[in-house]
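Changelog entry

Holo records now carry the ligand SMILES as an explicit input line rather than a separate metadata file. Below, a converted record for zinc ion, shown in the new format.
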Amino acid sequence: MSAPPGRAAAGKTAWLLPLLLLGACAAPKERPFRAQPVEAAASSPHFAAILAEVRVHLPQHDRAETLEIASEAGLRRISRRGDLISDGTREAPSLSFRGPTGVRILGVLHRGEALIEPHPMGGLKVTLQLPIAAYIEGVVAAEISLWSAQPAELEAQAIAARSYALGTLLKRRRRLSDPSLATLEGSTQDQAYRGAFEPDSNAGSRSAARRLHRAVSRTEGQVLFLEGQPLAARYSASCGGHTASLTQVFPSPISAEQNLEGAPCAGCQTRAEKEDPSDPRGPLRWQVTFSRADLRTLASNLGIGSQLLRYELGQLDPSGRWLSVVLVGDRGQKEIPAGALRAELGHGRLRSTRIVSSWPHAGDPIEAGLQLEGLGHGHGVGLCQEGARDAAQLGWDARRILAWAYPGTELRDLGLPSRP
Ligand SMILES: [Zn+2]
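Structure line, unchanged by the conversion:
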């Protein structure tokens, strides 16, 4: 069990100080962003390989019958013929495509190389080989609104995304006989990635592209470490007032080796007080009603009968976030992690596990349906994008934002090139 958020171990308390000062910040001040250099870490061949290029699978193209790819070979229509891939002029077990600025798949630019191969379930499968900077730019563009983002917010998100990539690929490489095949999913299963951000002729769009590029290049090689290892730094849209502990929300062997505590989020706390829960556009407060049919499906999927009779509170974290819930059906009951409940009911509907009220209440019979009201959007671990935006607007730099969002971490500069 992790220590309660806000009670970090000795040596980690320095990270809490900036939080206490939120709201009493000095005027925004941009200064050169420097991280601690790490000579020994830079010598790792895994680090060097990952911080040069990453493999990214694009699940949105899985099992496509045909794809149009523009590359240095021109515009090609790719299809599968048995176990082979054909672009109309060549047939091979797999085909790769590249170009001076990358490739376009169905019109979307990817600043790297594309490998097309048969998908095991039929159709095509696309995997990119991207310079990490190109990948990070794509992730940041997919994750936050570039138009209004402050430089510190972009830099913090870039470092978090790079740390996630390094920490995750490192674990995957160590499990593979051919480490070069370690791959990230180009979706929220790992990190959202929808291709390169291409500005249009609008001045604001071009400015956003410049700020994005600058944030990624200024933080090049910078990675969060926790307990001596790169942290696969998770982040979420909004924590709802308090971020969550990594090991409490993801109690898997993968996360067990690193224990990231939660932290209060002044930005979300302030916003939550102002928002109307019935306004679907509000990023923090939400309410949702699950019908009897929804709950019948839930009970059936969990094998506890054909009706959900009631629910009981399971484990809560110190901020009140649900960690588990006991569901009682007409043919049994089951305690499941709150994250699994979100997966069952839909991440878009049950937006977070920071549930603050329900109707009926816990323990009372469910008859017509179940209404839940909560705060935040996402799993709540690590960087809260809403909170980071508020902190950046108050003048926090990226280092300070990251020290708050990832208590106990060190920001290290691996000093490795990652230019596209
Ligand atoms: Zn927050």
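Spot-checked after migration. The longest helix spans residues 151-175. Residues 238-239, 265, 267-268, 384, 386-387 surround zinc ion (CB under 6 Å).
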